[in-house]
Automatic annotation (TrEMBL):
Residue ranges constituting the Thioredoxin domain according to the UniProt record: 3-153
EC numbers on record: 1.11.1.24
Protein's UniProt keywords contain Transmembrane: no
Protein name per its UniProtKB record: thioredoxin-dependent peroxiredoxin
Keyword Nucleus attached: no
Record text on subunit structure and interactions: Monomer.
Length: 161
């Protein structure tokens, strides 16, 4: 069953692309954006948009985390190409994607299932406060940032799906 607004997220146990375990910072919000493949221009665009807005997110007490199932070496190359400074979780075992119910059928010519491009805003207690299912790579970071600002300034008190 897919996670939705108001649900508690599972513990994220995948390692980062640098091989170290991921530890969320206590008391901070998180943007978890799932993307299907590191070598595509859409995924790179989305990741770069988050990097460009990273200072704005951090100023609002929000951490950004990318999640993908490609091999670690592909993620490390992706990090370099996109010049990223936020964590990338390596979900090659697909545990997180399965827990979030995001796996699609394999792409043509591939055997592996990939996560759908979806984004979650998670509060410091681990509750999904926003969930975007129709994600446009070029607009995702800006859309999420506007939503965070609205939510944290009290303009939006509803949990939205």
């Amino acid at each position: 069953m897919p996670l939705s607004t108001g649900d508690q997220i599972p513990t994220l146990t995948a390692p980062q692309d640098n091989g170290r375990p991921y530890e969320p910072t206590p008391g901070r919000w998180r943007v978890l954006f799932f993307f299907p493949k590191t070598s595509t221009s859409h995924c790179q665009l989305q990741a770069r948009q988050y990097q460009a807005a990273l200072e704005d997110f951090q100023a609002l007490n929000v951490d950004v985390v990318g999640i993908n199932g490609d091999p670690r070496q592909d993620q490390m190359r992706f990090r370099g190409v996109c010049q990223l400074s936020y964590p990338l979780l390596n979900d090659q075992q697909q545990r997180i994607s399965e827990q979030f119910d995001l796996l699609d059928e394999p792409w043509p010519g591939e055997q592996v299932r990939r996560p759908r491009r979806e984004t979650f805003l998670v509060d410091p207690q681990g509750v999904v406060r926003r969930h975007w299912t129709q994600v446009e790579p070029a607009q995702d970071a800006g859309t999420v940032l506007r939503s965070v600002r609205d939510l944290l300034t009290g303009e939006s008190t509803q949990l939205l799906a």
